[in-house]
Specification:
The chain has about 80 residues and is mainly alpha-helical. Helices cover about 90% and strands about 0% of the residues. The longest helix has about 45 residues, at about 35-79.
Amino acid sequence: MAHITVGLQLAITVLVFVFGGYKLDTYYHKSPLFVALGAFIGMGIGFYSLLKELNSISRREKEKKESSGDEDKKRIKWM
């Protein structure tokens, strides 16, 4: 479930920056300049956020796996 939200967050970030670039293009009458700039900035910020979130998810899953493994070891000791 968390991976779905990460993908949506990336898509929304890119779309927001592209839309902002489109609005700047219409205001300043510069056709593809701000849309392209917005797309690159949106992708950069989006991918940074994506990597940060995926590392966090990976770390939590690893900690969860390690903590569940410790409980199994404790159970084995008592048997």
